[in-house]
Amino acid sequence: MQAFDTHEVRNTVAPFENINLFAADPALQEALAREGAGDAAAALHALGAELGKAKTLDLARLANLYTPKLHNFDREGHRIDEVEFHPAWHQLMALLIGHGTHASPWLGGAGAQVARAACYLLFGQVENGSQCPVTMTYASVPALRQAPRIAQKWLPKILSTQYDPRSLPIEQKHGALIGMGMTEKQGGSDVRANTTRAEPVPLSEARALFGEEGDDVFRVVGHKWFFSAPQSDAHLILAQTDTEGSAGLSCFFLPRYLPNGERNAIRVQRLKDKVGNRSNASSEVEFAGAYGWLIGKPGRGIPTILEMGSHTRLDCVLGSAGAMRAALTHALHHARRRVAFGRPLAEQPLMQNVLADLALESEAATVLAMRLARCFDESADPAQAMLARILTPAGKYWVCKRGPGFGAEAMEVIGGSGYVEDSPLARLYRELPVNSIWEGSGNVMCLDLLRAFSKSPEAREALAAELALAGSGDIFFVAYRSTLLADLAQQQADEFSARVLAERVVLAVQAALLLRHAPPYVSSAFVASRLKREPGGTYGRLPGGLDCAAILARALVE
């Protein structure tokens, strides 16, 4: 024995890695098949193996350890506003783009949104920062289609599966990324308070600068307090206009490089020092007379960009479900192997209660997210479109709001080792609040849900039809459903209780899905712990008599 070797290292747990993330998740496999994308199972099985490799998971660590750096000027003093990323970031982006996570639903095919949702959920178990530019690029397509000239030029690059991070005019690139910027210092979620202004450029001047691309060009002056992914090739923003009597916010497309090859006057002031999502660059910018192209009608910027917002909110649900799944797998993997007081943690009753509660929450988030994705696939059906109108804000509120507590509980399963930066739980914990804040905070989502019910009687009908599919076999579910629908039939818009309504809607839909599709030991435990009584603020409150061992066996197949 050498000096100072006072002990041997034992009773520790090897990292959760080199496992197929798709094969380990029966609930995701089942949801993929029933929601209409079973043909994608083989591809997702291969992707799950690739994402679960140790070297892939380590890319997430590196991308968050070596965070983006902003370079405002080159060595000769020219303004460049370039963001430098670690090679791990680019490898993650290449994986996401290469698998079409930014574009596949727009290329057609049955179940394309569901297949893409499963893919996104798997990537959410690896690294969340790189999902941000992918989400915005994916969500930009419906908005850009409102501007045919821009769509014709840009969509082939946006839909390309070649990741091209080079800072070049779009004509010279193999693929493109799109970002967005709506939030300003004085307004936050109240985008109508934005002060950024856009003035039309005279057609003769615009044509002299940009030739045939000189139509609908504006000069933009102002700022954005949050300008997501400044390395993107273009951004969608909102600015105040007063054009042809249409005063109000309009939507604009601001390319990084102008059609004449010059850099646009978008000045990146600094990158945000965020709590989480640290691998991703978020910035503050000033528009010093930047050129922007009108998207949609003047004064109709909010409805135009909401074409983008509904899809980004879907991804908030998917991203949170993926991060929660990741936290669960790390915790359960650890608890099965760590011995305390003479037996593995996962065999101890109170720990089983905590882990099973987390497993129920994760599975419920997954099935809701995948069902919501099918609504997007079937948006031509008015009933499915209306169900999406309800479940998108409600799901974003509840699933994303449950995430931070979920991450904290999973960290506690691992204990002190989970609270240090060597553990992936620390990064996951920091990631989980962002989806609740970004793209509309919890309050904004709940108010949006109220608007859906108050403006559209069909909203209650769509919800009732979905809940009816669960039948009448569970008396507690039947009572919960009846009370919810009765309250919706009578309820006036009650802002004060909007969060409670959103919670009730999501829990009812999650319970209905689990009653229809999950094993009885899962669905009965969910109903007993979420409908028969309120879910509460912590995990590990399951009532007695449940089959926790079966729940945990299903939660992670190793």
Automatic annotation (TrEMBL):
Q: Which segments constitute the Adaptive response protein AidB N-terminal domain?
A: 11-165
Q: Which Pfam families match?
A: Acyl-CoA_dh_1, Acyl-CoA_dh_M, AidB_N
InterPro entries reported in the protein's UniProt record: Acyl-CoA_dehydrogenase-like, Acyl-CoA_DH_CS, Acyl-CoA_Oxase/DH_mid-dom, AcylCo_DH-like_C, AcylCo_DH/oxidase_C, AcylCoA_DH/oxidase_NM_dom_sf, AidB_N
**Start and end of every Acyl-CoA oxidase/dehydrogenase middle domain?**
180-288
- Reply yes or no: does the keyword Glycosyltransferase apply: no
Q: Is Cell membrane one of the keywords?
A: no
Record-level Gene Ontology MF annotations? 3-methylbutanoyl-CoA dehydrogenase activity
Give the cofactors, semicolon-separated: FAD
Keywords annotated in UniProt:
FAD, Flavoprotein, Oxidoreductase
Positions of the Acyl-CoA dehydrogenase/oxidase C-terminal domain: 299-452
Which top EC class is named for this enzyme in its record?
Answer: oxidoreductase
EC nos: 1.3.8.4
Q: Which family does it belong to?
A: Belongs to the acyl-CoA dehydrogenase family.
Q: Output this protein's name.
A: Isovaleryl-CoA dehydrogenase
